[in-house]
Write the structure tokens for this entry.
Amino acid sequence: MKEWTFVGRLLVRATSYMSDSWLVRTMADKYFVDTNILIYAHDRSTGIKHERARQLIESLWTSGQGVLSTQVLQELCVNLRRKVARPLAVDEIRLLIHDYMSWEIVVNSAEAVIRALEIEARYKTSFWDALILHAAEQSGAAILYSEDLAAKQSYGAVRVVNPVLG
């Protein structure tokens, strides 16, 4: 199986055995990952949250079941450059985003913005969280891994799981 390892500050794939204990098993074959979980996976200074997020991303990478959106990739770029203990260089982030391009990526459209406004009103979430929920729903993911939304809460067909909780 493929495992992730660090080269400098960059998390990259390598061949090895790893556990998939953090991957919630459902009938669905897609799992949407919110930005905060990716940030934890790439920021070693976050301790146990880093380990748990890293294990999840390894599992999703191995299974090919991870889904992201353009919003998640954009937020990841900004946060890995400005809000982590050891900011990454632009070249490192470019390589990382290139790797994530092998995942399914939901492209947010103008229609997605309209739908997010409806989700925001219905569930009383922030607009940005509603856009994440819409992208997860649009991809067909039954699970949204996030720390921002209420764990175990269902939003339509999408259930939130917080993989960094103890």
In short: Confidence is low (pLDDT under 50) at residues 1-10, 12-27. The two ends are 26 Å apart (CA to CA). The first helix runs from residue 35 to 42.
